[in-house]
Amino acid sequence: MDVIVKNLTKFYGQQKAVDNLSFEVKTGEILGFLGPNGAGKTTTMKAIAGCLTPTEGTISIGRYNVADNADKVRQLIGYLPEHNPLYTDMTVIDYLRYMARLQRIRAAKINDRILEMVNVCGLEGEKHKRISELSKGYRQRVGLAQALIHDPQVLILDEPTTGLDPNQIVEIRELIRRIGREKTIILSSHILSEVEAVCDHIMIINHGRIVADGTAAQLRKAEQGGQMVVATIEDADRNLVVKALQAIEGVEMVDIVKDRPNTVEVHSQPERQCTRDIFKTCVANGWTLTELSPIETKLEDVFRELTK
Ligand code: ATP
């Protein structure tokens, strides 16, 4: 089910938390929200989940407008809020049963759904414990189980892997990817590698506005501009190397790499490739080229550049 956000703006008093955001997420797509603290991620997610009223703009889930169909939208959406509020006096089973009833799942189906969630979210060993007795990671799994209990078409997950250990993170990511094949998922995270590993599509938000939108590869490319390669050239005078490489058409900059006197970083102009000419230049001068490899901009660098 597609999620369409149009011109979403939210003010808290005088403060503009979200500023005219528009985007779409299609069925089977996982969108990752990245952004520094206070960027507006949670506010946007709450608005999509129907938990707060936007100051301006519209949100639709499939053919339903969120503002006019709050009840219907609640059935279509599973929401794991940022601080994962749970009734900690209840046992896991009782809590899931309670959430299933709130979601109006038919009585005859409730036990099956609970069993499935216990299974899918790895809660078998913990299901009879009170939530207050669970570790943070298991509480997070209970939050995920309640978000999924009614088999929603759209999942909104605000920092879903917070507090999980590395093994649990891998398991939850796999679970999200599996669920994401059929459903529409929007998740936020501060872990850039997570967003890159899990999401088809990344949106970086800063001060309530979209500053980048695309796949991880597209974002890296947009930030990087032209091609960047590192070349290690032996048996050569490095001043001559720099001069010769700088003379190649399309080369923008040549830098000697710190602590590696035989290695240079070569930046080409946008849409230009220079590896072939670097190789030819080495051959023509009788230099030995022992390394020629592309450098990829890290998503971290893209994030820092766009949100600083
Ligand atoms: P984080 O990564 O820290 O969770 P975020 O990107 O989710 O941040 P939001 O929680 O959406 O950011 O907050 C956006 C801005 O709106 C912040 O400046 C925050 O202080 C403000 N804000 C959020 N909720 C409220 C509220 N209930 N009342 C007043 N201001 C709020």
Write a structural description.
This protein has helices at 41-48, 70-76, 92-102, 107-120, 136-148, 166-180, 192-198, 216-224, 238-246, 275-285, 299-307; strands at 3-12, 15-25, 30-34, 56-61, 64-65, 77-80, 154-158, 184-188, 201-206, 209-214, 228-234, 251-256, 263-268, 288-294. By secondary structure, it is of the alpha/beta class. The chain has two domains: 3-214, P-loop containing nucleotide triphosphate hydrolases (Rossmann fold, 3-Layer(aba) Sandwich), CATH 3.40.50; 225-296, 2-Layer Sandwich (Alpha-Beta Plaits), CATH 3.30.70.100. β4 and β5 form a beta hairpin. The model has no long low-confidence stretch (mean pLDDT 91). Bound molecules: adenosine-5'-triphosphate. Adenosine-5'-triphosphate binds at residues 12, 15, 17, 35, 37-43, 82. Adenosine-5'-triphosphate is lined by residues 12, 15, 17, 35, 37-43, 82.
